[in-house]
Design a protein that fits this description.
The structure holds three protein chains of three kinds.
Chain A (H helix, E strand, L loop, with lengths): L7 H8 L12 H12 L4 H11 L3 H10 L11 E6 L2 H5 L2 H12 L12 E6 L11 E3 L2 E3 L4 H14 L18
Parallel strand pairs in A: 1-2
Antiparallel strand pairs in A: 1-3, 3-4
Chain B lengths: L3 E6 L2 E6 L4 H7 L23 E4 L6 E2 L10 E3 L3 H17 L14 H9 L22 E3 L9 H9 L6 E3 L6 E3 L13 H5 L5 E3 L12 E6 L8 E7 L2 E6 L13 H5 L14 E4 L2 E4 L2 H19 L4 E5 L5 H15 L4 E3 L5 H12 L7 H6 L2 E5 L3 H4 L1 H12 L4 E6 L12 H4 L2 E4 L5 H14 L1 H4 L5 H11 L4 H8 L3 H12 L4 E5 L1 H4 L4 H14 L9 E4 L6 H6 L6 E2 L3 E2 L7 H10 L4 E5 L3 H4 L5 H6 L3 E6 L4 H4 L3 E4 L8 E4 L5 E4 L12 H15 L14 H11 L9 H12 L19 E7 L13 H4 L7 E3 L1 H7 L6 E6 L2 E9 L7 E5 L5 H4 L4 E2 L6 E2 L2 E8 L4
Parallel strand pairs in B: 1-5, 15-16, 15-24, 17-18, 17-20, 18-19, 20-21, 24-25, 25-26, 29-33, 30-32
Antiparallel strand pairs in B: 1-2, 3-4, 3-5, 6-9, 7-8, 10-11, 11-12, 13-14, 13-26, 22-23, 27-28, 29-36, 30-33, 31-32, 31-36, 34-35
Helix pairs in contact in B: 7-26, 8-26, 8-27, 9-20, 14-16, 14-17, 14-18, 14-20
Chain C lengths: L1 H9 L2 H15 L23 E3 L14 H5 L5 E7 L7 E9 L8 H5 L5 E3 L14 E2 L1 H11 L8 H15 L5 H6 L1
Classes of the chains: A alpha+beta, B alpha/beta, C alpha+beta.
Chain lengths: 178, 867, 184
């Protein structure tokens, strides 16, 4: 039962959750998130490790990992842009905005810029329907976007790594439990 | 428990068991509801939305697959609302389904086609382009065409719920959901073909028979598979005398429609180009092809000469347990009555005979458990971790018991709890897994028995004092500490497992080749029988013992008298006939002058023994086989026989179930069925026999005539013994003196280079015949050695790298494959390919049954030097 | 009125009228018989002669080997042996296609059954021969007849081009054919 890429800390973070659920498979989403934090994206080896820990077959892990847009199966850039494409955003110009981002970054959907700064992903509703068009970049929401705002936002992120256009912090519970 | 409910379906009142899904109830009422994701074998998923029905007093339409029938329901399956909904679903499905039916292998037996004819609207509301998936290579046996997929996930659920393999998953999401393996890699699973059979459309098809047939062209023949003792019913589909595909009809046969890789992809051996087509005789160093008449005449003339000079006892015969009951009966009749020799044996001598003679001695019968008992058991004690490979369908029954009916599985085997990805593995499902050291089965049984005897609650019962005393004495030799040291199992683990087994309401004991084909086989079977008696898990309905056979007619071979010990119908034979190893010794001594081998190849199966020398002393060696085997190559007369697909008859599976074998294709070339050959031989012998000797008739019109004779002469051969009869026999047995040799303790490995080597059956093969099937050789075509990753890491061996196995003076080089299943310090090599690896193993014989044991040994492993 | 009737009766006018028709055909009408081997009649539209195979305009054959013609044939004169194209992975073709003209009843059901319009009824009806074996036609013979009678070929549909491009791509990336795999 040797793990290929996951550290013992990650293994501990995953196995800690086992007692909370009736079976090990229930820990899968948590385990994938830990694995992604550890290696930046879910490599095949990382998914195999998760499968070994959870006593699943690799394809059961892959099954879940491909379903969620927040799991990356390829290496991603520093900032991952999740552009909402669901109906409320689309009605207020999300697709034009997404095209604008694509032109601006010079990448297609699911691709990463050559300087490894940005990865553009399209996703379904992010529960910010009243304030579209919107994108989520890493853990922050950016709402009521216009092409000009997007340009400013991307410049900010490239230059400083953060932007004050972020609407509010999007809280993710601390997975390591610390 | 299950009561009955009354409901109305389409105006028709019907009574069904409560809990029946509406779709099944409607079927009983004569209304077929269109469906894709529903399948009787699987839990309802209700994802395809095709089976919607209208139920009065329910505001919305309900999926009939997931709605259980309830009292007083009024259901409409064909109302306008239902029709509209089904048309809607259908137009969504057809919106993406390509119109490649003419090229699709499923065309003609496709559920989407059928239901589209009934339910599709004439016009599609969609003008969008259809989705297109990249074509993906899914391996050499299974063809994946995702554009055709309707995402019913039946394959994924079958792979999980029935097979417990989980090799398929639903990848991605939304309209681009597709079925696939891990990270779009080639499929690497058990290749049971279940996903192909269960796919309602042509998304998963067999690549082996791709484009070779259309479903309406094939001639279907229902017969029995010959690759193991499970006795699965299988449908051979042939066009122009060539088998192009196999399948199995849902719910039929002992396998209820499930097949394993050998059944599904192993049909290639039937029409193989290397099959023998004409009789041959040896002249000097050459083999001459001659006519049947000439071959039979020369064989009989030589036989007669030998019988006249050396007496009938100088003739011996061995038949393969792959032959039908009729053939084995006729073979022993030919030898015992036609020639008059007692030396008749069959290939069950390689292990299964231990199970039958052992169980027969204790219980008076051997048909103690059926698959229904296995599925219905609440505790299963399985001494056959390898059964997922050797008897995959019997293993499915165990999986069904554990996964569907929450049975407690106690697995005792030399495998780790972990398994390789995409392989089913019983220890993984086991509640109690006693992972013993290799070769420690006898001590594990002793440990379990001891634990049972020491538990005062469990061992109470009306056993005869003599029996209890003898069994207690037989296990008293070893303390639990010694057993722990030898097996690796603690007293506590033994006690828990023994308590679980003895506490069962319906406990079934299963054992396989790990017991019967290894050292102390006979005694271990008797020990297991004692264990079952002590735990009171035999002689009651629902309980019993199942001995797994690796040959399709192993049970039949013994019941038909294909043994020196038994005449047909298990009546003991008088006079001492030689067993197979005994015959070979007698050949070497010059005692046996003529040997008649039917589908038997001792040069291959006993390479350690000096078979070559023994056979070369024979005056006459007759070989009857499908292929020119090593032994057939040196035979004086070779008769070409036919495979199971080319003959009529009956096989008896390991449960004792007699099943019909039917002819699917005509014999290749001039080959004849074994039955015809025995008839010809018998007739020739009878006509040339001296006056005064009562002639035995071998004049049979067909296999039915032989079967009628069997039924007339041995009526006891196949009757099922009642539980009372078993109990009575046990009571008699318990009054007798029992002699049990003490178990042998396996010595410890001395240094880390030493490994315990096990040679056995791999999942993808069975004996020699499967190595001729192209479908199976694409999966495994040469010998490999399975090694635990910790060992390969320690030795610095990469996957696929050659290592040298050494024992005594013999060496074998084999490529390494890492496997989590084998224990550290043990190796596994499939037996089907290399003879050399068997030569590394010691050969021992069972003192009681004479079974040759040569599956285990100790070797040293070294990394091969690259020269 | 009576007078007219009476005069017709007296002067055999009906006979004269009848003879007039005879004379007209005897001397003035053209003969309806045709001098068959030297002279051939024009066949009506939709005449069903021998079944032939067609090609697309890029000379690839249309047949995909689906065996539906075999299933539709009432006289069982068609035998299709389908299989994978040995040179192109995943492509279904008819490895063998045999039409037994001696059994054919020229019903044209096969033409109607064909999902890719690969079959057509040609105007060919002169199949008389001294050698009956020559009436068992294979695919090449049927294609040759098709070339003769249907020189104007249908353009290859776009979706088929896409499929062919897919097959060619698979061939490029080394997607093996099933037969190659079995030999390996």
């Amino acid at each position: 039962m040797k793990l290929r890429v996951l550290s013992s800390a990650a293994e501990a973070a995953i196995t800690l959750e086992f007692e909370k659920y009736p079976d090990k498979r229930s820990v899968l989403l948590h385990a994938l998130r830990v694995a992604q934090q550890e290696t930046g994206y879910l490599s095949e080896e990382a998914m195999r490790d998760v499968a070994t820990l959870l006593e699943l077959t690799p394809v059961q892990v892959y099954d879940v990992a491909t379903f969620y847009t927040l799991f990356h199966l390829q290496p991603v850039g520093k900032h991952v842009i999740y552009a909402c494409k669901s109906l409320p955003c689309a009605l207020v110009g999300a697709s034009a905005l997404c095209r604008h981002i694509q032109n601006r970054l010079g990448v297609g959907i699911g691709e990463t810029t050559s300087d490894n700064q940005f990865t553009l992903k399209q996703t379904e509703c992010l529960a910010s329907c009243g304030s579209g068009p919107m994108v989520q970049i890493n853990d922050n929401y950016y709402e009521y976007l216009t092409p000009a705002k997007v340009d400013r936002l991307l410049d900010d992120l490239r230059a400083r790594g953060k932007s004050d256009l972020a609407s509010k912090p999007f809280k993710i519970p601390n997975v390591t439990g610390a | 428990m299950a009561g009955f409910v009354h409901l109305t379906i389409d105006g028709q009142g019907i009574e069904v068991e409560s809990g029946t899904p509406l779709i099944e109830a409607a079927k009983q009422a004569g209304a077929e509801i269109a469906h894709f994701c529903y399948h009787p074998k699987l839990k309802p998923d209700a994802n395809c939305r095709m089976c919607l029905v209208e139920i009065e007093k329910m505001p919305k339409l309900q999926t009939s697959c997931s709605t259980p029938a309830a009292e007083g329901m009024v259901v409409h399956t064909a109302s306008n609302r239902v029709k509209q909904a089904q048309e809607g679903v259908m137009s969504f499905l057809l919106g993406n389904h390509p119109l490649d039916c003419p090229e699709c292998d499923q065309g003609g037996e496709c559920q989407l086609q059928d239901f589209a004819h009934q339910h599709s609207p004439t016009l599609s509301p969609f003008s969008e382009e259809k989705r297109v998936f990249d074509k993906e290579y899914f391996g050499p046996l299974i063809e994946k065409e995702m554009n055709r997929c309707v995402s019913c996930l039946r394959c994924v659920r079958y792979c999980d719920e029935v097979l417990d393999v989980n090799a398929l998953g639903s990848i991605d999401r939304g309209t681009m959901t597709q079925i696939g393996g891990f990270a779009h890699h080639e499929l690497d699973c058990e290749f049971c073909g279940g996903c192909i059979q269960i796919c309602p459309v042509g998304a998963l098809t067999s690549r082996l028979s791709m484009y070779d047939y259309r479903p309406w062209q094939v001639k279907k023949t229902e017969t029995i598979c010959n690759y193991c003792g499970d006795g699965c019913e299988l449908t051979l589909e042939s066009i122009n005398n060539t088998v192009v595909r196999t399948s199995s009809k849902l719910g039929t046969g002992r396998n209820t429609g499930d097949l394993c890789v050998r059944g599904f992809f192993g049909y290639g051996a039937i029409g193989h180009k290397d099959r023998l087509t004409r009789p041959m005789i040896r002249r000097g160093n050459h083999r001459l092809q001659i006519t049947w008449k000439g071959a039979v005449e020369s064989a009989v003339a030589a036989l007669k000469k030998i019988v006249e000079t050396h007496g009938p006892g100088s003739v011996g015969g061995v038949i393969s347990a792959h032959c039908t009951n009729e053939e084995i009966y006729l073979f022993q009749k030919l030898l015992r009555q036609g020639i008059g020799t007692p030396h008749v044996d069959s290939s069950t001598r390689y292990g299964y005979v231990n199970a039958i003679t052992g169980l027969h001695k204790v219980f008076g019968t051997t048909r103690l458990a059926r698959y229904e008992d296995v599925v219905g058991a609440d505790v299963l004690l399985v001494f056959a971790g390898e059964m997922t490979e050797t008897n995959p369908i019997a293993a499915l029954k165990v999986k069904e018991a554990v996964r569907k009916h929450n049975a407690t599985l106690i697995a005792v085997d030399a495998y780790t709890k972990q398994s390789d990805p995409f392989r089913s593995h019983l220890p993984r499902l086991a509640k109690y897994h006693l992972q013993i050291l290799q070769g420690a089965e006898s001590l594990a049984i002793v440990g379990l028995t001891k634990a049972l005897l020491e538990n005062p609650v469990l061992s109470e019962g009306d056993f005869s004092p003599l029996f209890l005393e003898q069994v207690t004495k037989s296990v008293a030799l070893f303390s639990f500490e010694e057993i722990h040291a030898a097996t690796g199992i603690s007293q506590e683990a033994f006690s828990q497992a023994a308590a679980a087994y003895a506490g069962a309401t319906r406990g079934v004991l299963i054992f396989g080749r790990a017991i019967t084909g290894s050292e102390e086989g006979y005694i271990n079977v008797v020990r297991l029988a004692h264990l079952a008696i002590l735990a009171k898990q035999v002689g009651r309905p629902g309980t019993g013992i199942l001995a797994l056979a690796s040959e399709n007619n192993a049970y039949g071979a013994i019941a038909m008298g294909g043994l020196p010990e038994y005449l047909p119908g298990f009546s003991p034979a008088n006079g001492a006939g030689y067993t197979l190893p005994g015959m070979l010794d007698a050949c070497e001594r010059g005692e046996i002058k003529a040997l008649y081998l039917v589908g038997e190849n001792p040069l291959r199966s006993l390479p350690q023994k000096n078979v070559q020398a023994a056979l070369s002393k024979l005056d006459l060696l007759i070989c009857q086989d499908l292929f020119l085997s090593e032994t057939a190559a040196i035979a004086h007369v070779v008769f070409p026989a036919v495979s199971f697909a080319e003959k009529e008859g009956r096989f008896t599976n390991q449960e004792g179930e007699v099943q019909r074998v039917r002819k699917a294709v005509e014999p290749v070339g001039n080959a004849k069925t074994d039955l015809e050959i025995f008839s010809m031989m018998g007739a020739a012998i009878a006509s040339s026999s001296a006056a005064g000797v009562p002639a035995v008739s071998f004049d049979y019109a067909n296999s039915e005539a032989v079967w009628r004779e069997i039924m007339a002469t041995v009526p006891d051969g196949f009757h099922t013994d009642s539980a009372e009869a078993v109990s009575q026999h046990v009571a008699v047995y318990a009054q007798q003196a029992i002699e049990l040799a003490p178990p042998v303790v396996i010595s410890k490995r001395r240094n880390p280079d030493e490994f315990d080597l096990q040679v056995g059956q791999a999942l993808f093969h069975s004996g020699r015949m499967s190595t001729y099937a192209s479908g199976l050789t694409t999966l495994l075509s040469s010998a490999i050695v399975l090694m635990h990753p910790s060992d390969s890491d320690r030795m610095g061996v990469e996957e696929g790298e050659q290592v040298t196995l050494r024992a005594g003076s013999g060496t074998v080089c084999l490529p390494v494959k890492t496997s989590l299943k084998v224990q550290p310090g043990t190796l596994f090599v499939p037996e089907h390919f290399s003879l050399d690896v068997k030569r590394l193993l010691p050969l021992a014989f069972d003192p009681t049954t004479g079974v040759p044991y040569s599956t285990r040994g100790r070797v040293t492993v070294s990394k091969q030097k690259i020269s | 009125m009576n007078l007219v009737k009476w005069s017709k009766w007296v002067f055999f006018s009906e006979i004269v009228k009848g003879l007039g028709v005879t004379v007209k055909h005897l001397f003035f009408a053209k003969p309806v018989t045709e001098q068959y081997p030297h002279q051939k009649r024009t066949l009506p539209e939709g005449y069903r002669g021998v079944i032939v195979h067609l090609r697309y305009d890029d000379l690839t054959e249309k047949c995909v080997g689906c065996s539906l013609c075999e299933a539709a044939c009432p006289s069982h004169c068609i035998t299709v042996v389908s299989g994978e194209d040995p040179h192109m992975p995943q492509r279904r073709i008819a490895k063998e296609y045999i039409l037994d003209v001696t059994k054919c009843v020229f019903c044209g059901f096969c033409v109607q059954a064909c999902p890719v319009d690969a079959l057509a009824s040609s105007p060919e009806y002169e199949m008389a021969t001294g050698n009956k074996r020559s009436l068992i036609m294979d695919k090449e013979a049927m294609l040759a007849l098709g070339d003769r009678y249907f020189p104007v070929r249908q353009k290859r549909p776009k979706y088929l081009d896409e499929r062919l491009a897919l097959f060619k791509k698979m061939q490029r990336i080394g997607f093996p054919t099933a037969k190659q795999e079995q030999q390996a």
